[in-house]
Structures are given as structure tokens and as C-alpha cells.
Amino acid sequence: MATEFIFKPNPTREEIILNDFFANTNWDKPIHPDPAHLQFFDIPDKFALLLNNNLPVSTLVIYSRFLVYQGKKYSFSGIGGVATHKQFRHQGFATELLNRTLMAMKKNYDFSLLCTDIPHLSPLYTPVGYIPLGRPYYFIDKTGKKDVELGGMIASLSSPEAVTQILSSQDEIFVGTSNF
After folding, report:
1. Which of 57, 131, 168, 172 gives a 20 to 30 Å CA spacing to 50?
2. How many domains are contained in the chain?
3. Are 28 and 37 in contact (CB under 8 A)?
4. What is the pTM of this model?
């Protein structure tokens, strides 16, 4: 498998469109019942792509955020739009993309957070280090409404103590306000 990993800040419009195309044409049914324009609360600031023999096979976007939790400020990366082209699934590409992305983010973030269909997709995310939060987290959507998510998973990057603190507490987890 001759793969190339591309990880870059400030994705271009074309890269965001590529990620959206992969997600919209290669995901199974969406887990979000509300319209996507309300659900997604941020504009991605990093882009990761895995090429196999110069063909795009797997992509994701990253949202840089901050979380103040129990009086301490943490930086975290929100992972979104993880998608692998249907012809390349079950060949390890998404796992490789996630592993390489997490390694690239270690020096800049305390932890990573994503929202997913845990019963269906935890076999993809658990082996690369994500652990279910075990409780909801929330954000304020672009209409000002509190939006609660249940499928949160967290992975330690540079701060295992942050992850331990979050997982061992029952305090609410507020991940921010939409700037989408």
C-alpha cells in the first residue's frame, strides 16, 4: 500500500468541498436528525487526506477549540467528516489516517473529541485511542439553542490528565458556541 498523508492548516474551499463530497456520498445514514447547517458549529481549520497511489481514499477535517473544565483551560481538536471512499473501506485507510492525524496533533492539543454513532463506529475509533465519554456534551448552535450530543468520544493527545479528569467527573461538558 503506497500511501501519502497530507495534513495542513487552513483548508481551501476545494479541500472542504472534497471532504463534504466524501462524507455526503460515502457515509451511511446520518446520525444527526437536525439540519446540518445547524448541527455543525465551526469552520474547519485543518485538513487531513490520505492518498493511495495518488488517489484520495480517506479524509477528515479538524476544528480547533478550547474547553474550560473545572477551572482549567484545555485546547482540543474536534474531528469531523471522517470518510473513506466506499471502494477503499475495510483496508485500513481510515485507521491509518486517524493514527497519522492524531500523531500530527499531539504537540498542539491536549485531547481530541469527536461525535459518532458509538455502537456502529467504535470499532474504528477505539483502536486509535478514543474512549466513549459516557455522558452528553453540548454546544450552542448558530440559533443560540443548546444542542446536546450523546455520541462523544475522547482521545488523549498531550494531556492524559485532562482526559482522566473529564472521564472521572460528571460535570457538564460545554464545547463552545457556533461560529459557523
Report:
1. 131
2. 1
3. no
4. 0.86
